[in-house]
UniProtKB/TrEMBL annotation, chain B:
Protein's recorded name: Heme lyase CcmF/NrfE family subunit
Transmembrane segments annotated in the record for this chain: 6-26, 38-61, 81-108, 120-143, 174-197, 209-234, 246-263, 275-296, 308-328, 349-372, 392-412, 424-443, 449-467, 499-518, 620-640
Keyword field contains Transmembrane helix: yes
A Pfam family of this chain: CcmF_C
Record membrane topology: Multi-pass membrane protein
Signal peptide: none
Keyword list, A-Z: Cell inner membrane, Cell membrane, Cytochrome c-type biogenesis, Lyase, Membrane, Transmembrane, Transmembrane helix
Gene Ontology MF, one: heme binding
GO process annotations (BP): cytochrome complex assembly
Family per record: Belongs to the CcmF/CycK/Ccl1/NrfE/CcsA family.
Any GO CC annotation of this UniProt entry: plasma membrane
Entry coiled-coil feature ranges: none
Length: 41, 662
């Protein structure tokens, strides 16, 4: 029972954490981030 | 169940390591989807640590003695409250608390950083994850709370009886909230330096977090002092014990930061200095945890036997090298465009304040590590006792008090002789009047008269600042004095919150001076019916009682106190003997008034019913606790958000991270 809970938790958390990497990156977001950084330096 | 706890910690460690790598990589490559994944990993760390914490709490509540930690820190007879507080009653549990608190802080910090300085998100996530990773390495290797034993005992050993006290139940969490809180300003400043935003180095955003950590450390120190006073039964509240000093040092550095950051905001000065203070405060928080958890305090040999100390020192060395390396690489960019215009300026007073605070912190550091240094260098352990600290710290603290009165009175940049004369007249007169009145009333030790006179001076300064504010406000608003005072404070919470904190500090100083200089003590062996006279009190001993309670033999001395002919009512001084642990705890008979505390300890007794009592009359101790309350009120006031909206410097990257969640 505990083993099953641990496996399900591990898979669910890993999938959730890695999900942003599988989505196509939003290039405008990166550009805005870059602009934000430049405006600060 | 233990497997689930171990899984939680191992999973959290894996996620923390991933978060460090992903945040560093994503931040460097400007890949926001990777940073977002790192932030999610930190949410995962928090969830898995909460799971591990839940497993430990459940094991404690079920008194599952197959957990070595549960068997070592609770027992069947232990009250429910202390069964829960056993979570942080031992080393492994307190390290888990560190990690859980850090995760909660990290998530809160990421929210505010994403809202106000999104370009720092990756750096803050990387630093928070790295610190969390270190504690998770300890928790999964040398300090696991989930070690199980094959043959569980019938009953546990229970917590150290000295910790079975309500003040000790809340003292460690408050202290840890402060210690761990110092990680967030450190993470923000490191992220700012890393991202190249050196012009203010994130210090202004870090200020709020530092204030919170400072407040929690203040509470922790206050709770610890109260515990020491009512439980240890030695008559005092502060013993310059290394564990106390470990919390005092970062508190002093954080206090210095909270003052120097005002100069940075106002004049863009001291930028290098404030960054160094943030790094030092964090370093001292880790050093404090190292001191209390490595065993180095009992002997340098126990330190070398415990692997924990080595881990802490290695982490501290790496963190300090990396942090100071980063600060050095941005040193020129942090240089301030402005210089000190005059020695007679508020900047100058704040600078002196910082120098004095850091000198006290260094003296405390030296005195604390001296036994370890002497043992390492000469093979002989030499302790410096309270006299060392008292001799060094007392004059510095009085100097600090003087600066506390001077600072608010001097103008920024350059003060004229005329403005100084006008400003100092009332507070200076208040100080002189207090000093003369006390001397005329017969107070003799000049140090005590000086301390009270300085308290009068600081009180005069604070009163003058409030009076000036009210006068200006009433010139613009048609309102009475009280509504004007309320409006003044509510519209300038930070400034007047700071003044209220100063009032709290001066109450604490007055209480410490009164109780340290004018305490009286008597030890007497008495028979039932005998009375002992001390400092205007008469304490009658009415006999002994014995009972058994929560695994302890409780011996109580029934007492009755009188002031002249006035009956002040019954008192009870107890000794709790935990025979299983060969430990004894004290419950002091205490009668507190604003004037003084009557403090009676039962130190011994005979089979014939005689008792040996230690009686103390400690003047003004209540002022210390009242000062702590006033300080808390001021700090909360200063922490409340200002009504003016905080300007948002840049638009948050839409795809990076939503402030509302991961």
């Amino acid at each position: 029972m505990t083993d099953a809970v641990m496996v399900i938790l591990a898979v669910a958390i890993a999938a959730w954490v890695l999900a942003p990497l599988r989505r196509p990156a939003d290039p405008s977001a990166s550009r805005r981030g870059h602009a934000a950084r430049e405006s600060d330096s | 169940m233990a497997d689930l706890g171990r899984f939680g910690l191992l999973g959290a460690l894996a996620l923390a390591l991933y978060a460090v790598a992903a945040a560093a990589l994503g931040g460097r490559a400007q890949r926001w989807e990777i940073v977002r994944s790192a932030v999610r990993a930190l949410w995962g760390v928090a969830a898995l640590e909460a799971l591990a914490g839940g497993v430990l709490v459940a094991a404690l509540l079920r008194r599952d003695y197959s957990f070595a930690y549960v068997a070592g820190h609770t027992r069947d007879a232990q009250a429910l409250l202390y069964t829960v507080t056993a979570f942080w009653g031992g080393m492994e549990g307190s390290l888990l608390l560190w990690a859980v608190v850090l995760s909660a802080y990290s998530l809160a910090a990421l929210r505010s950083v994403a809202r106000e300085r999104p370009q720092l998100l990756a750096g803050v996530a990387a630093v928070c994850a790295a610190v969390a990773g270190f504690f998770l390495v300890l928790l999964t290797s040398v300090a696991s709370p989930f070690v199980t034993v094959p043959f569980p005992p019938q009953d546990g050993r229970g917590m150290n009886p000295l910790l079975l006290n309500p003040w000790m139940a809340i003292h460690p969490p408050a202290l840890y909230l402060g210690f761990v809180g110092l990680t967030v300003p450190f993470a923000i400043v490191m992220a700012a330096l890393w991202s190249g935003a050196a012009e203010e180095a994130g210090v202004l955003l870090a200020r709020r977090w530092m204030l919170w950590a400072w407040y929690c450390l203040s509470l922790g120190l206050g709770f610890g002092a109260k515990w020491s006073y009512v439980v240890l039964g030695w008559g005092g509240y502060w013993a310059w014990d290394p564990v106390e000093n470990a919390a005092l040092m970062p508190w002093l550095v954080a206090t210095a930061f909270l003052h120097s950051v005002m100069i940075q905001e106002r004049r863009a000065m001291l930028r290098q200095w404030t960054v160094v203070l943030v790094v030092l405060a964090f370093g001292l928080s880790i050093f404090g945890t190292f001191l209390t958890r490595s065993g180095v305090l009992s002997s340098i040999h126990s330190f070398t036997q415990s692997p924990l100390g080595g881990y802490f020192l290695a982490f501290l060395a790496i963190a300090m090298l990396a942090a100071f390396g980063l600060v050095a690489s941005r040193w020129e960019a942090l240089r301030s465009p402005n210089v000190l215009d005059s020695a007679l300026s508020r900047e100058s007073a704040f600078l002196f304040n910082n120098v004095v605070l850091l000198t006290i912190a260094f003296a405390v550091f030296l005195g604390t590590v001296f036994p370890v240094l002497s043992e390492a260098l000469t093979g002989r352990r030499m302790n410096v006792g309270p006299p060392f600290f008292d001799h060094i710290v007392t004059p510095l603290a009085l100097g600090l008090l003087l600066l506390m009165g001077i600072g608010p009175l001097i103008a920024w940049r350059r003060a004229s002789a005329e403005s100084l004369r006008t400003s100092f007249l009332t507070p200076g007169a208040a100080g002189v009047v207090v000093g003369l009145a006390l001397t005329a009333a017969g107070m003799r030790p000049p140090g005590a008269v000086l301390a009270f006179a300085l308290c009068g001076f600081v009180g005069g300064t604070v009163a003058l600042e409030f009076a000036r504010g009210i006068r200006v406000r009433r010139a613009h608003h048609a309102e009475g004095i009280l509504p004007s005072l309320a409006g003044l404070v509510l519209h300038n919470r930070r400034r007047y919150g700071g003044y209220v904190v100063h009032l709290g500090i001066l109450l604490v100083v007055a209480g410490v001076t009164g109780s340290q200089v004018f305490s009286t003590q008597r030890v007497a062996t008495v028979r039932p019916g005998d009375a002992v006279q001390i400092a205007g009190y008469r304490v009658r001993f009415d006999g002994l009682e014995q009972a058994t309670r929560e695994g302890a033999l409780v011996v109580s001395a029934r007492l009755r106190a009188f002031a002249g002919t006035r009956d002040l009512g019954p008192l009870e001084a107890r000794k709790n003997l935990y025979l299983a642990d060969s430990e004894a705890t004290t419950e002091v008979a205490l009668r507190s008034t604003p004037r003084d505390d009557l403090y009676v300890v039962l130190t011994g007794w005979t089979a014939g019913g005689d008792a040996t009592l230690r009686l103390l009359v400690n003047p003004l101790v209540m002022w210390i606790w009242a000062g702590g309350l006033v300080l808390s009120f001021g700090a909360v006031l200063a922490m409340l958000p200002e009504r003016r909206p905080v300007p948002v410097l840049v638009e948050a990257p839409a795809g990076a991270w939503s402030p509302g969640g991961p």
